[in-house]
Amino acid sequence: MESLSPDDFEEAIPTPPDSPLVHDEPEVMQDDSEDVPLDIPCFDCHRQRSAAAGLFQPSQSGYLTDGILARLLDDMDPCPALFQGQHLLFLYGHHYISSTALAEKQLHLFSLTRQKTMQLDYQMKKSQNWIINENALKATAQDTSGFFLYITVFLHRYLDIAPLDGFEQQGCESLQDQYRSKVIRDLVSNLQELIAFIERLSNFNPVAAHQYATSTTHQMYKSHFLFHTKLDLHWWTMMVLYSLHRKVKGTSFESSVLVMLNQQIQAILEDLVYLASLRLKKHIGDALSLSLFPCACLQEMWCLMINVVNSTTNDQSFWSSLQVILSDIMDKKIHFSSSEESPLEDVYRECHPYRLSLWLIEQLAPLYKISRYGNIQDTAESLPSHWPFVQLICKRIFAQQDTSEADLQVYMRSVLSLSSVWGSHVKFMISLWGEFSKRMNQTPQFSLMGFQGRNSASKSPRLWYDSCHQRADNHKASLLQEDSFNLFVRIVALQLSRLSGQQRQQTWKQLQGRLFSSFHESFFRGLSSDGLVRVMTLFLTLMIVQGVKALAGRILDNLDLIIRVSVTIEKKLIVTRGLIACALVHQQQSCDFGDIADRLVQTLNKACQQFKMKADRSDMSDKSWSLICDYVTSVQDLLEGSDHLNMSEDKLIGQGFSFLLPACTDTELPRILTFIQAVIQHFRTVYNRPVTDGATEIPDLDDLNKKHSAFARSLWSYIYPFIEACACRPTAPPMLADIAASFTELAIDLDSKPLKDLTQHPKAATLFEYYALGKSRVHTSISAGYLCRLLPVRALTVCLNAHLGSNWQLSVVQTWFCCSLSQPNPSSQLSELTESVFKHPQMAEIFRSLKQSNIDTNSNQPLSLLDFIQACAAYVAASENYEMSSKRKAISAQLFGDLTSTVKHLIRGQRSPEEYLWVYQVIGHTFKHCTSIIHKQIPGLLTELILFPSLYNQEKPIPQLQLQALRENLPAFIEGLASLNLSTDVAMRKKLKDIVVKYFIRLQKPPTSLMARGSSQVISSHPLQKVLYKSCAREPSTQLINLRQYVLTFLREAYIPTPAQGSTGTTELQAVVRFMQELLQRTLSGNQIVRDCQVLLLPVLQYLLLAEQNTKNFVAPLLNLLMEGTKKCQPPDYKQNELLGCFKALWKNYRQQHHRGLFRVLERAALKRPDLIGCMIPEISEWVDTGGYDVMLRKGYIGLLRHLGPKGNAEIIRLNKEEVT
Fold it and tell me: I need a labelling partner for 49 at 20 to 30 A (CA). Which of 220, 383, 736, 809 fits?
C-alpha cells in the first residue's frame, strides 16, 4: 500500500452521518455526548518493570487489572459505565448514537479504523528513531481501542434490542432476526477484512520484531511503542470475536464465528511462539535464567490467551492448542517470515525445537497462578498440566542420537521446573527411567554448565549424602552442578515429595515396580564406575524421600548384587562410599544399619588382609590402602555424626584393624592412628554424656548398654594390642601417646560406669604402670606425651593413689629423667612434662637446695635436667647429719632410677649424633656431681659408656661419634671418680687407672671434622689436661691433688718403664713427656710440683742416665721444669727429704756401673737446685774415698762439685789436699 499524507487522510474521511437527534434535539446532543475515555485498557509498560527482572506485576492500565476480560468470561457487561442508552458516542472526531452506531455505520467505522491504523504507521515512519510524538500516537491508538471497546459493549448490550421504531408490529420477529443477521454478517465480514489489514506480529518489521523480542531491558524507541499498539489491535479483535462467539452460540453463525475465533487464536499463539523463538535464539546460552517475556505486556498477553482459549471450548485447552503449534515446529512444518528474503525465514529451523518447546511450557506453566484480575494465587494444589505432551517431547529428544549431555541438562531442568508447578505423573517418571536406564554408563563431560556426570560428591560419603539430601529437598544452590541423570533423580524426588497419603503410596508402588525390575545381576555387571555412582545416587535419594523402612530390604538385596559383581578397586570404593552414605541416611532417620555395617566390615577385613600381603603384591597393596583410607575417613565422619552410637556403629570397628595396624609403615600408620584417636574420643564423649542431654528421642537403655559394650569390646580387642606393642618401637609415632592416654581414660570411664556385657579390660593403674612408670620398654617419647596428657587428669590421680599409693609420683620423676635423657632438644610435650614434674613437692624441696647453695644457673632459661642433677647434689650436701644424708641419698637415687639399664638401652639403640652426645653429657654431669648418690650404678655405667669391652682391644677402633663424646665428657667422669675415697676403694681406683691408661693414647689425636660435628666446642687439648687443669692453681683442692697424683702415677706405671742401657723412647713415652711438660708449665704451685717430683723425678733421672742421647734430650726439659718448680715451694724445704731421697736412690742404684753418667745427671740437676744436690756431698765423697784414687772418677766428681757452691768448693779443696799428700 502506498503511503498517504495527512491531507490525504483528511480527504479520505467521509461525511459524518445525519442523526435525527442532531437536528431535532441539539441541546441533548451537547449535554449527553460521551467521549471515549482515556483510561481504556491497553498494553503499556512505559513505567512498568521488565518481567524478566522479577515477579509478574500487571500494569495498572492493563486488561487484567481493568477486569474487562473477567467480565466477558463471566458474561457480564464489559464496561457498565460507558455507552448507556441514547447517549451520543464521540468517536474518530464524530458523534454517533451509542445504541445504533454499529448497526447503521459499521462499514464507515471500520473504514475509519483502517485509516487510523494507516495513520499510526505513517506517524511512526515520519518520526525519528528515538524521538516520537508520544501524545499524538497514544491519541490515535486510543481511538482505535475505543472503537473495539464500543463493539464489545454493543455486542453484549444492544445486539438483543428490538428493531428501530417505524416497523410494523406484526413483523417484528422476522425483522429482528434480519437485523441481527445483518449486523453479524457485516461484523464478521468487516472483522475478516480488518484482521487481514492488520499485519500479524510475525509479519511485523523483522528488525523491530527482533529488537523487541530479544531485549532484556525496558525500551522506549518507536518500534517498541508500535509493537505494543499492534499487540492491542490483535487482542481487541480477539475480545470482539470472543464476545461475538458468545452471542451467536446456537445459531447458524456459530460455526463460522468459531472458525474465525480459532484461526485468530491460532495466529496469535503462533506469533507469540515466533517471538519466543527469536528470544531464545538470541540468548540460547542464558536459557536457564532467561525469561520468556521481554516486558510485562507480553506476559499479560500470554495470560489473556490462556484464559480465552480455556474458555472458548471444552474439548481443547490452551495446552492442547499450544501442542499443535509446537508439534508442527518439531516436525518442521511451520515457518514465519514476511518475505523470502527475510533473515528470519528459517528461524525455527535454526532454533532448537525441543528446547524451545520445553522452555515455552516451563515459562508458561506458572502463569496459571495468575487470576483473571492479575493477582498471583498461592495454592497448594498442582496447576493444570500437560504431562503427556512433555513425555512425547522427551521421548523424541532421547530418540535423537546426537543429543548432547549439555542439552539433556537443559531439558531436564525445564522438566524439573514443571514438576514443581504441575505435580506428579507416574507414567512420565517411568518413561524417563526407561530412557536413563539405557544411558547409565555415559561418560562424564565438560560443558559451559560446568562439570557434568559423576562429580566430586561421590568422593566422600558425607558429600554424597548431602548432595542427595539437597536433591531430595530440591535445593536450588546445587542445581547447576547436576548432570542429566541427577536432574532426573531430582525430578523423581520432587514429584514423589509433592504427593501424600494413599496417592503417594500408589504412585510409589508403580514406580518402585518399574525401577527394581531393571535391577538384575547382568544389569549391574554391565555398569561402569559412572553408572554405579548413578545407581547408588538413585538409591540414596529414594531412601531419603521414601524412608529407609520402605526400601531397606530391596536396596540391600541389590547392594549385595553390586558387591558381588564389583571387582575393580574403583567400583569397590564407590560401593563402600555408597554403603556409608546409606548408613548416614539410616542414622538421620534413627534406624539401625547393622546389615549395612556387616557388609562394610567384610569389605574392610578383605582389604586389610590383602594389604598385609603387600610384600608379595605391591600393586594390590596400594589399591587396598586407597580403600582402607577411604573407609576410615568415611566411618569417622559417620561415627562423629552419631549422638548415641546405638545403631550398630560398633560393627564398623572390625577384625581387619588387627591385620592392618602391624602392616602399616611409619608413613602410613599416622593416618590410621588419627582415625582411632577420633573414634575413642567420640565414644568417650557419648559414653559420659547423659542420655537425655539434648536428645529428641531417648534410646532404649538396655539396647544402648549392649551397643556400648560391643563398641568398647571392639576397641580393646582389635585396636589396643597393637598400641601396647607399638609403644616400644624406637620409631613409635608421637600420636601413639595420645591414643594410649585415651585408652587409659576410657578404662577409668568404664570402671566408673561399668557395662554389664563388657568382658575384662585393662585397669587404668596397670596401663599407667606400663606406659609411664618404666615397667616396660615403652619409648621415652611415648611416655613423655602420655604423662603430659594424663598428669592433669584428676580422676587418674585418684585412681593411682588408690591402687599404687603415693610413691607413683616419684616413679614419674624417674620416667621424666629417662625421657629427658633421650631428648637433647626437648619437645613441647617434654617441656610441659618438665614443668609439671618440677611442681611436685619433693622436687620443689630439692630445687630450694640448689638456690641456697649459690650454684650458678641460667636464670633466663627454665630449669632443665642438668639443673636437676646439680640440685640433687646440693640437696644431699645440705644434709645436717649422717642420717639425713643417707635419707636424701636414697630419695635422690630413687629419682634417678636404674640409669644403667636406661643408658644401655639408649646407647645400643639407633641414635642421632645429638642424642648420643647428650647421653654422655648427662651421665658425665651426674658422675661429676652425684657420684655418691649413684655409687652402686657406677660400675655398670662405666662399662656401658667408658670401659666397654672393645676398649681393651687395641686393634679395634672406637667409633668416631663415641670418641667425640668421650673427648668432650671424660673429664666429668674422672672428676666424679676422684670424689670417691680411692685410697680405700681399690675397685674404683682400678677403674680410674684403666680410664687414664686406655684413653691417654686413644685421645691423643685432635678431633676430626666428623667428630666435631654436633659439638658446641672443639677441645684440642687432651681430656686429662682438661681434668687436671684446676690442679695447676696456686692452692688446688685436696681432691685435685690426689687425682693428679693418681693420674701421674698411672701414666708413669704404664708408659714410663725403667729404661735399659741405651734404650730409645717410645711414642707413648714421648706423649707422656709432652703431656707432663705442658702440665708442669701451667702449674703455679711449687708445692704441687714437689708432689709431682715424688712420682716423676726418679724415672726422669733414670732416662737421663740410661737412655740414648735423643731420648735424653727429649726428657731433659722435664727435669728442668721439675727442678725449677721446686724452688717455688713454700716453705722452701717442703718435702725436701722426699726429693733428696729420689737422688739418693738413683745414686745408690747406679753408682757402681754408671758413676760417670750419674755425675752428669746430678750436674744437670745441680744447675737448678745446687742446694739440694749439695746435701748429697758427704755420701758421694764417702763413696769416692773408698773407691781409691781413680783419676776419672775424681774428675767427674769435681765437675759436679763446681756447681754446688761453697759446699762444693770446700769439698774440692779437701780432695786436692788429699791428692797432694
Answer: 383
User: Which residue matches cell numbers 562424564?
Assistant: 444
Distance between CA atoms of 393 and 415, rounded to whole angstroms? Answer: 11
Q: Which of 1197, 1207, 1201 is nearest to 1159 (CA)?
A: 1197
CB atoms within 10 A of CB 530: 18
The torsion angles phi and psi of 158, rounded to 5 degrees, stand at: -115, -10
CB-based contacts of 675, cutoff 8 Å, min separation 6: 632, 633, 635, 636
φ, ψ for residue 933 (rounded to 5)?
-80, -40
* Bridge partner list, 34: 89
Cell numbers linked to 459 = 568422593
Q: What is the DSSP letter of 287?
A: T
One-letter identity of residue 249: K
Phi and psi of 252, rounded to 5°?
Answer: -70, -15
- Phi and psi angles of residue 157, each rounded to the nearest 5 degrees, phi first: -105, -35
**C-alpha closest to that of 43 among 238, 302, 223, 301:** 301
Burial label, 401 (beta-carbon count in 10 A; 0-12, 13-18, 19+):
exposed
Other CB atoms within 10 Å distance of the CB of residue 370: 21
* Model pLDDT for residues 122-177, shown as the tens digit of each residue: 766 665 555 556 677 777 788 888 888 888 888 888 776 433 344 444 445 567 77
The tens digit of pLDDT for each residue in 934-947 reads 999 999 999 999 99
Q: Count of CB atoms within 10 A of residue 1109's CB?
A: 9
Residue 744: predicted pLDDT = 96
> Which residues make beta-bridge pairs with 97?
88
Q: State how far the Cα of 1116 lies from the Cα of 822, in Å rounded to an integer.
A: 50
- The answer to whether 204 and 227 have CB atoms below 8 angstroms apart is yes
> Which one, of 758, 792, 787, lies nearest residue 770 by Cα?
787
- Classified as helix, coil or strand, 447 is strand
339 contacts 371 by C-beta, under 8 angstroms? no
User: Which contiguous run of DSSP H or E holds residue 1058?
Assistant: none
Which residues lie across from 447 on neighbouring strands?
450
Which tens digit of pLDDT belongs to each residue from 401-439? 888 888 888 899 999 999 988 988 999 999 999 999 988
Residue identified by cell 508520544 is 134
Could you tell me which of 232, 202, 270, 211 has the C-alpha nearest to residue 59? 232
Contact 237, 194 (CB under 8 A): yes
pLDDT at 831 over 60: yes
| Torsion sign (Cα): 430, 431, 434, 435 | negative
3-state DSSP call for residue 88? Answer: strand
Q: Would you give the DSSP letter of residue 891?
A: H
DSSP letters for 786-839: HHHHHTT-HHHHHHHHHHH-STHHHHHHHHHHHHHHH-SS--HHHHHHHHHHTT
pLDDT value of residue 85: 56
Q: Are strands 446-447 and 450-451 parallel, antiparallel or unpaired?
A: antiparallel
Evaluated on CA atoms 714, 717, 722, 728, the torsion sign reads positive
In the three-class reduction of DSSP (H, G, I as helix; E, B as strand; rest coil), residue 14 is classed as: coil
Return d(Cα 745, Cα 741) in angstroms, integer.
6
Q: Does the CA dihedral 155-156-160-161 come out positive or negative?
A: negative
In sequence order, the β-bridge partners of residue 89 are 34, 96
User: Strand, helix or coil at 34?
Assistant: strand
Give Cα 102 distance to the centre of its chain. 80
Cis peptide bond upstream of 1131, omega within 30 = yes
pLDDT band at residue 1134 under the 50/70/90 scheme: confident
Length in residues, the chain:
1221
Query: What is the mean pLDDT of the segment spanning 883-893?
Result: 93
Across 611-615, 744-748, 901-905, 1103-1107, least confident range: 611-615
Q: How far is CA 504 from CA 163, 418, 423, 498, 528, in A?
A: 62, 19, 12, 8, 32
Task: Quote the mean pLDDT of the chain.
Answer: 83
